[in-house]
Each structure stands twice: as C-alpha cells, then as structure tokens.
Amino acid sequence: MAPATAIPRGLASYKKKDGIVTLTPDQSALIWSPLPGTGPPVVSLAVSRLRNLQRTPDSAPKVILKVFEKPRTPDGEPIPYAFTFTSPTEARNEANALKDLLSEFIKANQPGAAVGPATPGAGPAAGPGAASSAVAGSNGASASVSFANAANAANAKQRPPVVRWFDDESLKTNTQMQQSLMKQDAELSQMYADARTTKPDSLSDGAFNAQFWSSRVGLLRAHAIELNQKKGAYNILATVKPRVENGELRLNMKPEQAQMILQQHPLVQRIYNENTPKLSETDFWSRFFNSKLCKKLRGERVTDLDHDDAVFDRYNDADNSLAFATRIMSQPVPHMIDLEANEENQGGGPRSGNRKDVEMRPRYNVPIVKTLNSLSEKIMANVAPTDGESASEPAAANGDGGSANTNAGAGAVGAVDNTLGELTLRDLRGDVEADRIVLNVKEQSKFLSDRQTIAEDQSEDSRLYEKQVPGDVLFGVQADMETLDDDGAGRLDLHLSIGVDDKSDSDAEEGTRMAHVGSRAARKDAQDQILDGMRKKRAESNYTSGGDPASSPMGIPSEIALRCAITNATTTEFLRQFWNAFMSPAGGGSTSTARELAHHAEALAKSRERIDALAAEAEKIRDQLNEKRKAQIREHFKKTNKRLRYVPVGGGKEAVLALFEATLTGLHAAQALYK
pTM for this structure? Predict the structure, then answer.
C-alpha cells in the first residue's frame, strides 16, 4: 500500500487503452492519461462527484477498479468508469492504494459526515510527487470538505458547456452560441433584430427563434468549431534548428519546446532522465542536436562523417515508440481496412518467398518514411477523440469475462457496419425504384384540368419546336453538313462553316443573313448580354457605397439601399418559413400546421407592406433631390444667365420595386397559393 504522504498512481488501461490513473496534485480529481502520461488527461472525475467504488476480488485474475460517478440528472443512473490495472507485479497494490484513498474521500463527502480525512483542495502542491497530509479526526476536515465542494461547484459553473457540434437540436437551443455568432456577424444580428420586430404578434418568441435558427444550423456549427479549435501538436524537432556562429553551436530553444520534445520522443525523455543532472541542461541539448540520434529522429540521412557522441550514440538503435505502439496496436481496426490482416491472409510479408525489390526495401540510414509515420502516430495518439464512444467500450466497461466477450463481438460487428457506411460511395448507387401504390381514378379529366394551364404556360420556343417536322429538320441538318466549306487543302474550315469571317467589317452584310453560332453578330449579341448583366449586377451590388445618391447606379440613397438589403433578407426568411410549413409532410391537414401557415401568411403580407413603404420613402427622397437640383439650376441661371441641362435623379419607387422584382414575384406566388 502506498504511503499516506504520496499520491497513489498506477498503470491502468481504460477502454483497452494503456495509461496512468492517479489524482491531481491537489487531490481534487481522479484523472487518467494515456501513456506516457505526460499529455492532458482524457478522463477527469471530480472527487466530490464520486458515489461508489467496486474492485475485483483477490482471487480474480484481473485487477479492475470500477468508479461510479453521480448521475448528471436526478432520474439518471450512476456513470461507471472501469480501470484495469496492468502492472506485472504491483497491480493489486496500486489498485488497493487508490481504492483506500478514494473510499475515504467518498465517506467524507457523504451527507452527515462530521469528521473525516483531509479532502481534496486542502492546499496547493509543488508537483506530481508532492506530499499531502491526511489527519483523521481533525476538526478542520468538515470545513475542508465544504470548501472543496463549493470550489468544485464554482469551477463547474465556470466551465464552458460542452458543444456537440453535430447535434442540430443542441445548436438550435444554445443561446450563448447564437449570441456569440451574432456579435461576430453584424449583418446577421441586424437581420435577426429586424425580423423579430416585424414578426406577427401571434408568433411567439420561442417559435420565431426555432424557425430562424433552423435554417442556420450550419453557421452555428461552423462557429462552434471555430471557437473550439486549438493549436495542435507539431513536429517540434523540425522547427528547432541550431546555428553555428564563430565555430560555436548556438541554440535558441524555449522551455515549452523542450517539453514538447520530451513528450513526442519517449527515448529522449529516457536519455534525459538517465543523464541529468550529470549533464547540465545546456550541455545536454547542445550535444543532442549535434548527435546522430537527433538526425535519425528527424528522418535525415546518417553518415559516417557525422559527429560521434559517447552519450547519445548508445541509444541509436533504441525503440522510440514502445509506449505509443502499445496504445495504437490495442485499438480495434475493421478488417476491411486492416492492411496488415490482408497481407497476412494473402501470404504476404517475409513468408511470401519472394524478396522485395531493391527499391522497395527500407534503407537503414534513410528512415524518413518510418520516422514521419511514427511521429504522426504519436501526435495523433494524444489527440482527444471526436467520434464519440468507440465500439469496444461495452466490453471494456464490464468486469465479467463472458459478457465482455459477447459485447465485444457485438461491438466489432457495429464497428464494421459503421466503417462500411462511411466508406460507401453513395453517389455511385443506382436510382432506387419508387415503391408506389397504383391508384386507379375514374373520370381523371375532372381532377387533372391543370394540365391545360401548364401547356399554355410553355415557352414560345417549345411551341415552335412542336410544330417542326422531324424529317424537314433532319434534311436541313444533312444539307448543312454537305455544304461545309474547306480551307483549300481538303480540311474543314470551321470558321467559314459557322459563318465567321474575321476579315469582314461589314455589319450590314451580317444583318442580311442568319446569325450562326460564333458569328460576329452572335458574338456581339453575347457581348451585349454579358455587359447588360454586369451593369445590372453593379447596380444591385454597388448602391451601398455611400456618397451622393444621385451618383449611384440606381439613384437609391445609401441608407435606403441598406434597409432594402435587410428587408429583402427578412422577407426571404419569411418565405422560407412559409414554404417549409406548406411543404411539410403534415401539409394543411392538421390544425397546428394550418395555424402556422396563417402566421406565415400574415408575415408575408407585412413584408409586402414594408416593401411598399420603402418604395414610397425612396420616391419622396427622389422628389426632394429633384427639387433641390432644380433650385440649383435656377440659382445658376440667375448668376450666370446660362441654363444647365436638367437630368432627373434616378432611383425612387421604380428603382426599389425593380430591386425587389424577384422577391415580389415570390411573395405574390406564395400569397396566391395560400388564398
């Protein structure tokens, strides 16, 4: 059993992953970190939230300590955490020491416990091996318990809530995330405020928020990921490069970089522990970066001309990934992507009989691929998983061997199914045949009268194509193919065939014949169409640049243009909500859907009123600007007796309505369909 003055710790696996389980220096939390134990803890349980402990009997072949955390909800079940101690010789002693200390803490935290041992939070400690006193029966124990509980509760309140990035319902109800996003996006905030002030009175705030954010879950998820992004680990040896000045090795390295080197390379940490303080810090790192071992860890070529070092050369052949390899190999890999299993089943590897080609054999002095792969595995091994619970968790959480095997088999099947679902190329699948029920309706003409209306709405080109005779069209195409021009050398001249004559500058000549694809007339029409679209786009996008309203492309004042943009966004939002309710599976048959459609129809009517109000205000401002311009012309005529040309100011009601043309069409269609 561990001494009372030391914090117990032990080698233990959690969910089939090797690591170290211990307490924090202030003994306020039980933590488990993956090997080598220098990274952040993956499991952290506040001691004040522990409810019960269970340990396998002494006769059991495995030493498992199961810790139960208090339920998160009043009606919930305790959450179990099973740690399997893996030390070859001290597994039982380590489990007993940890169990005894945790039992004292749990007993002290129970209601009505007047006295007890010193509890977590008694005071700060100097380091991982710092001593903590445990005096049974002291009068300050209950005060320490209360202080620790209060501190843990305060820390729990200060911790930011865990954001489930891929849970739509959680993002829709996360008001803090929504407010943070609107603080970052001023346009979205203004749109939300304007839509909320103009919503129908019959629509509650909760329903409005749910409808508003239901179409912006992607924005919330992207914002949540952005807030939770942190700088990950990187290959630190590639960034620390010593330089030689005046024949001396100069090394500029921060303490954080040295810590990362020890964390990423267990071999360097082992050498550091074995040779310091025999070697000073400066001497150790200077000799390390000048050694063959450093070049090997970087993946560089090691030659006989490199500097020899009596300390580091002894470790050139030592393993640098023992602890990480244990963790990586213990993770279950589905057979469909397990390359080593495929090679073994097909008789590959050293037993195949045929030696690999010389170019495929790994070179001893060029271990770049092996080094980079090993380093990538080490960095990724310390990254917290984001794919939820693994398939092997049920087996790891059970102490009973039979149930563990059963759950492990079920978990393996689930893992294979999940992997197959992720690897399936869904876009290569064929169209799924619709499973329909044939409905025979008599006198269908009474119910399908809208087909005539649809036929009347066909385009003019469609009606023209319907009148053409296929034989005549085919004859014309064949005639065109026979009359194709050549370039005099027996080759086809595409320019002349389609009517393009770059040497001709006569526009009248092209006006007398049909414009072919690629001809000068066709290219001019295409150019005019493109320029017209560019002018329209410029008129719609650059009207918010500010300055004189008369100089803007559409003559719309900047403040009116900004309000037009916000009104268009809110109107589009109301249209989206209307169509979502109208096209819902329930349709208009349910009372709740009909009531919701009435709310949306009212919002659409108010949107049309807001657009008309903006158009009227723009027309009023236009009249004021025109009167001001006329007054300037009259004043100029009085002073100089010269008349200036009067150019009416653009914009006004027509410009605003032209800007809202597509939106008004959508409003009219939605309102007509609802009525």
Answer: 0.40
